[in-house]
Amino acid sequence: MTNTHSIARYDIVIKNGLIFDGTGAPRIRGDLGIVDGKVMAMGRVDASLGDRVIDATGMHVAPGFVDLHTHYDAQVFWDPYCTISGWHGITSVAIGNCGFGFAPVAPDMREYAMKSMTRVEAIPYDSMKEGMPWDWVSFPEYLDSLDRTPKAMNILPYVPVGPMLVDVLGLDDAKAGRMPTDEEHARLAKMLHESMDAGGCGWSAQRLPPTGPAAVQRDWDGTPMPTDMMNDETARVFARVLAARNQGVQQLTLTTDDIKHDMAHLEEIASLSGRPLLHNVVQAFEDRPHVHRRGIEWLERCRERGIPVYGQGATTDAGFTFTFEDWNLYDDSEAWMEATTGSREERKFKLGDPDRRQGLKDNLPSIATASLGAVTVLSPRSPSTEQFREMSVQQVADATGKHIVDAMLDIAVTDDLDTLFFTAPPQGNSELLKEIVQYPHMLFGVSDGGAHTKFLTAGRYPTETLAHQVKEKQWITYEDAHRRLSGLPAQLAGFQDRGVLRHEGPADVVVYDPENLAIGPNEVAEDLPGGEWRRVQRASGYHAVIINGQQTIENDQQTNVYSGRLLRHGKG
């Protein structure tokens, strides 16, 4: 509780809500008083002292949600709300994840930077080309551009290492995995220091195998991403920078054929830096439950030994709605990657080519091996395929006497690659997802907000957490949910004073109706620059979202108030 005697007026008084402070402490019935963007009173606040009063009777009042895994690095320039995240109670996001980003990028490399993101994160090229100002070269200049941009979201910037590797080594050598020289490692360390001096909050990299069953990320031309080819020693160089500063966080994924090496290396980086390491993604697979259980057991061993490694869990049931005009999540199979790259006409020819079909059948990607038959034909696009609407691919195969690959691709090719398919998330059995949700130190989310815009709506995860996993399924309490939606991610990623409601802390607040909180239908929104479209799911039940003391959402609608900030060093 806080003393209110010295406050003459409040900008906003939130009355009679059930307050969750984001620390995991028990809820309290009370009021909140906000002055100059800060929480200045909790407990009993005289409504007559408020310039505005929000009646929160029957509502929950909580700190704004913090999303640590997004790719809004481009979208923030044309979408101040960073939707769909901004519609689901998220008030702060971390960008620059996976080692992917747009700085440092020399002018002659801008085209490559945009084309690269069209494949690995499925961000439309025309939207990036039209929507980004490109008034920067270096990472500090990129932050200055973000600072100038109107925002209805707080932005915490990781420093992505991919652009740094390309800048220092050159594109060909970065992709070849050449070990940097001592001088080049010194340049990389200096570049990270300068980027963090300007406000970067640590570094990020996603290192996946360039070939084989775990090669699920590709550059626009099918070659490995520079981060995939990064050496272990380079990661150590970056870790030593954080150790020297005693500052920052690492968002790092590492997957090789040697799981013991991967775990040991991540532990080494966290121990060498002495800083939190956010490992993603911990995900349940219905056919391989040992995978997430092994991950949780490892995280628990790290916790017991005091090694600051934390897991980011895929905690949403959002599946993938896709067409083969833009699908890129079968890239762990060389055959499928080759067949799904190129122009629409090239893809259509390759997916329909009889000489390629057996190779596609023999080399099903890991994400499809156990689930392809369950893929649903949501929306056929031609008279001859209309008969298969709402059927599973397995049902189509049974009805036509075809192999499931032929059944799906024959429909797609007939429909000029416009057939709309749906595939459920890989965890299948919700009891497996429950195990991830109930591990008390697991971060929620991995929304990938801003990426895979034509087939993924995982930015809905806060609403899903509260409406389904807490209220409906009762897997965890509201207190724990708000700690893990706000307080825990803010603490780990270096957000200063955010993620919790406390006296004189930033007033990032959500007020929602727990009885009517819901996720809207999957819709197509034609609202991207360059005439591009995306899939969205809106939310209902958010009575108010307040960022830095100003209301950005009122009864689920944007107020077009841009009170978000660039959080250099996690504060601002």
The top level CATH class name of the largest domain: Alpha Beta
Give average pLDDT, whole number.
Answer: 94
CATH topology of the largest domain, which one?
Answer: TIM Barrel
The number of helical elements comes to 18
Q: How many domains make up the 3D coordinates?
A: 2
Low-confidence stretches: none
Level-2 CATH architecture of the largest domain: Alpha-Beta Barrel
The helicity comes to 25-40%
How many β-strands, per DSSP?
Answer: 24
Helix/sheet category: alpha/beta
Rg for CA atoms: 24 Å
Overall shape: it is globular
CATH level-4 homologous superfamily of the largest domain: Metal-dependent hydrolases
- Beta-strand percent range: 15-25%
Distance between the termini: 25 Å
Largest sheet: 9 strands, mixed
Summarize this structure as a short list of keywords or feature phrases:
2 domains; 572 residues; TIM Barrel; 9-stranded mixed sheet; 5-stranded parallel sheet; alpha/beta
Walk me through what this model shows.
The protein has 572 residues and is α/β, with parallel strands linked by helices. The protein has two domains: 65-319 and 426-496, Metal-dependent hydrolases (TIM Barrel), CATH 3.20.20; 327-423, no CATH class. 33% of the residues lie in helices and 19% in strands. It has 18 helices and 24 strands. Strands 1, 2, 3, 4, 5, 17, 22, 23 and 24 form a nine-stranded mixed sheet that branches. A hairpin with an 8-residue loop joins strand 19 and strand 20. Helix 11 runs antiparallel to helix 15. The radius of gyration is 24 Å and the shape is globular.
